[in-house]
Amino acid sequence: MVDVIVIGGGPGGYVAAIKAAQLGLSVALAEQAAMGGTCTNAGCIPTKTMLASSRLLTRMQEAQKFGLHAEAVALDFAGVMTRKDQVVLRLRKGIEYLMKKNRIQVYPSHATLKDATHVLLDATGEVVEARNIILATGSAPARFPPFTDPGIWTSDDVFGIVQQPASLVIIGGGVIGVEMATFFSAIGTEVTIVELMPHILPTEDEDIAQALTATLKKHGVRIVTSARTRTVVTEEEGYRLTLDVNGETQEVRGQHVLLSIGRKAVLGPELAALGIATSSKGIVVDDHMRTSLPGVYAVGDVKGTFMLAHVAEKEGVVAAENIAGRDSHMSYAAVPSVVFTDPEISVVGKREGELRAEGTPYKVGTFPVSASGKARTMEESIGFAKVLVHAETHQVLGVALYCSEATDLVMEPVLAVELGLTAEQLLEAIHPHPTMTEMLLEATEASIGLPLQM
């Protein structure tokens, strides 16, 4: 018998296993596919590796802005995809090494929960007994009519393509959709985004969505919003889609279609038989990551909420600590959202729409990228920083960034929101010059009516 067995080797699962081992527990982990889960193999890492290539290509094409000459700059699509595979492999091998380093028994098998203390390894028929079980079975791309043609790509499929598509219709303007649009438009593919909601990135404020829309359109991306796909028909050169756009019929065509309307939790039929509570999204847990079945925990995408690798990792730590006897709680008050478009987007805390709906009095401070000294040195001029503070207490409620390096800059706002800092407390810190962090300083000053550089 082991102290804990983890089912699933993605960010939530493997981090939970490592933390449990560090806390002195005996640990096993079952993973039927590659270690690292979706994030490492068919999500975060391959996407960002491809985007790093397309961003460099864009910068090389603009070399003259920096007084440089870069003639005959060209895309090697096969080379981009080979590099992506190499990066994924190195990171996967790193996770496998961490399993060995922490003496975690890894079973290369699909695993089925039999009861609160037993797991069946389907590959061998062996049953592993454990005092505690962590479910981290992840998620899979959602697919539904009319997107049933087997040739339609999902986010899992797109990383295995060997030829650059001439044209691509992306269904869904969420994070996956806009990141893919950024990559493919940068390398010369004709891209169309079809989004059901009134604007892309529908969970974010309209100012962020409008700014990104303008940037994508500048790079040739066609964006059709408030659009429901009625039919998808195969043609000799690809696909023809019939859309209902605010009651009017439109058609779009593309050599390929990428379905990126989200993911769904991977739930086994045994959960209901064992009395594990689920919702329409996934497994229900408390803030200790406990399911309704004592001794069984769930972390990551299988819960169906906050499908983010960094959230899954934190949930894995919380589950492991509780199994080890600590009283650890999960908080979602300051979960950062990161979008690797060009420029990047990061948001943490409350959105303006949420504050308006709640009736919370707030003030807004903004600072444009075009006024940043560091941004100018990098020939960056698109974007802004936005800070939301309580109108009376000046507590920092939320921050949104649309700028170069936004995904790295967001950690200061994460701490401000998590710790409940006021604008005045944030301004006590000296921000180095010239850096992009000064945008946060200036937007915070503006939020309380004391801008120094505007």
- Give the strand content: 25-35%
For the sheet with most strands, the description reads:
7 strands, mixed
The structural class is alpha/beta
Q: Summarize model confidence as the mean pLDDT.
A: 97
What is the distance, rounded to the nearest whole angstrom, between the alpha carbons of the first and last residues? 65 Å
Instruction: List unreliable stretches of 5+ residues.
Output: none
From the spread of the alpha carbons, the general shape counts as globular
What is the CA-based Rg, rounded? 23 Å
Number of helices: 14
Could you explain the architecture of this structure?
Helix 3 (44-61) runs antiparallel to helix 4 and helix 3 (44-61) runs parallel beside helix 5 (175-186). The radius of gyration is 23 Å and the shape is globular. The chain contains 14 helices and 22 strands. It has helices at 11-22, 37-42, 44-61, 77-101, 175-186, 206-218, 270-273, 309-323, 352-358, 373-377, 406-409, 411-419, 423-427, 438-447, and strands at residues 2-7, 27-30, 105-107, 111-115, 118-121, 127-135, 139-141, 153-154, 167-171, 190-194, 222-224, 227-235, 238-245, 248-254, 256-259, 263-265, 296-298, 337-339, 344-349, 362-368, 384-390, 396-403. It is an alpha/beta fold. The strands form five sheets. Strands 1, 2, 3, 4, 5, 6 and 17 form a seven-stranded mixed sheet that branches. A five-stranded parallel sheet has the order 8-15-9-10-11. The model has no long low-confidence stretch (mean pLDDT 97).
